[in-house]
Task: structure prediction
Amino acid sequence: MTFRTLSLPPLLVLISALGCQAPQAPVGPTACVIHAADYESLFSQTLTRLRGVEWRMKRVDRERGIIETLPATSAHFPELWRVDSPGAYNYLESSLHTIRRAVTVRIERVDAAAGGTSHDGRASDAAAAIDAMVASDADDATPPGGAAAVAEVEAREVESQLPGTGRYRVEVEVRKERFSTPERQVTTASGTLGLFSEKTPTIYGYFRARPGDVRWIALGRDEVLERNLLDHLLRGHVREPSANVSPPAE
Result:
């Protein structure tokens, strides 16, 4: 028996004592709007910080603002130093199954895409309408765009206090998959020694698994790791209220 198998009983006791509950399914993107000096610096910093937590790159597209990592097998007991299986549930799941995760980061300029204030000082139509409303003392009027327009003006006020910065939407997406392979036929206690060997036939009668029998099963997004990575990647940047996390209109 392997060390990983022998370590599972004490791990189960530990997790049970701490409590374990599956995270809720995400209801929207994990993203925020921040202020940064320039796009190139933000992109390079994001790439460096991803590599700093041991993610290997699959795709780096500066022009489109996309960073994709290669799938990586997630941390399991006793890899306590790794940060890609956050929470008791994820850690236990990765210890009992072969789980892998892949990260996608998208960086988009908000100003030009969403009609915000650009670097040449031109304001959006919604912001201009609110400015006109305030100038005419129309306190009871509803600005075009409602709360979204108000949030846009608040964002302009934040940016005005940070000269030389731009607004960028950063989104982190983590996809999780579980490895699936046919079980082996074990009929005796000594047969467990060959549980992971090709000398023991599968439940389908084959000694080697057929190509279609071995696959990765999609488990959806890992919002806990998404939020942890977003906090790590954007550490030190000024964030805007959560009303600005929607993707820019095409």
Summary: The helical segments are 3-6, 8-18, 39-52, 88-96, 110-114, 125-135, 147-160, 223-233. Confidence is low (pLDDT under 50) at residues 112-143, 159-163. Residues 3-11+30-181+216-244 form one domain. The chain has one domain: 3-11+30-181+216-244.
